[in-house]
Amino acid sequence: MFGNRFPTAERPLLIRSARPTGFGAGFDQPVDVMIGKDGRVAEIGSMIAAGEDAKVVDAKGAFLSPGWTDLHVHVWYGGTDISIRPEQCGAARGVTTMVDAGSAGEANFHGLREFIIEPGRENIYAFLNLGSIGLVACNRVSELIDMRSIDIDRTIATVEANRDVIIGLKVRASHVITGGWDLTPVRLAKKLGRILKLPIMVHVGEPPPLYDDVLGLLAEGDIVTHCFNGKAGGSIIEDDDLYQLAEQAAARGIVLDVGHGGASFSFDVAKATLERGLPPKTISTDLHNRSLDGAVWDMATTMSKLLSLGMAFEDVVAASTTAPRRAIRLPAEGLLAKGKPAEFTLFDLVDADLTVRDSQGATSRLSRLFEPRHAILGAEAIAAHRHVPPEGGEGGGHVCPHCGWKS
């Protein structure tokens, strides 16, 4: 895979007095972590001598987790009217790995790779959109009008030429996108996924197709994003049959992903589903320029929302780190072992009194917040903090400068 592209550093990095979490058993006390110039873990212990040349980050007891991994973002900035710059949702927000969820199709993926993925400071991967044009003019020009929108041969060729960064296929299953085409795009994506031996990520939204029918087409490793959307006909709590199908899907290894976004996350749906014992497998933001200063803000705030709704701290961390890594087939075990590439997030859990919104405008108050301090990429410690939207944000007043869309 393409990841862990950390350049050789001039100085080693010592993280002092951090509390490991999300790495499995064996870390009951704060530890020091020395990272060599090569960007790999060199030593783990207590009171490690810094030496004369090491840069020291004093964690002061903050949590150290595997790097936060956002499974659903849109960062093909300049290539689509919906995408933001990677730095708006990456290391400066505590995120070390992100996955662009279908911004590019086969016709424009080369630009996403050359201008975004390769120069990126973070590890960036992509789901390739089934539609050849991707999200060039998102929701204004559909990428899935009919079969003229899909070139199967070129899609296969693009995946084969970019297997180091393309980790799956993305298809939007919603009548807003596909009109009356119903399940055909999902069937085509699943067929290509079988040929290419890759998972598919399916956006579920306004039916048709029905969320129920989409679940029936998926197999272990496939991903349903926007799993807690509150749209009529698409909410998994609005009828028991659909809820049971979702339970069965999760049991057979289908990944339920939050994919918050500007229109696809409901506090009520998430709370009810968590209370019934069906948590999301992965937490992601679906950050784009219509959600950044609206409902979503960043990864830390999205994680905090799930915590406030009753998800356990350890489960929130896993759903934001190792679970999405497994979903895209990255190593997820022994990440703090000696010799492993260093990719961590240093964060605190702080008291707060913050009003936030879901995608439908419902409000909630957060009393605890995930607060990123540093993203650790190799021997580089990048200062991080939560995104604070400008006045007029919080779900009400952001206007996209490119397309005029108001969130």
TrEMBL record:
Zn(2+) 2 binds at residues 170, 203, 226. SUPFAM superfamilies: Composite domain of metallo-dependent hydrolases, Metallo-dependent hydrolases. Residues 64-353 form the Amidohydrolase-related domain. The keyword Zinc applies. The record marks 172 as: Transition state stabilizer. This is Amidohydrolase/deacetylase family metallohydrolase. Zn(2+) 1 binds at residues 72, 74, 170, 286. Pfam families: Amidohydro_1. It comes from the Bacteria. The modification N6-carboxylysine is found at residue 170. GO terms for molecular function: deacetylase activity; hydrolase activity, acting on carbon-nitrogen (but not peptide) bonds; metal ion binding. Keywords: Hydrolase, Metal-binding, Zinc. The keyword Metal-binding applies. Coiled coil: none annotated.
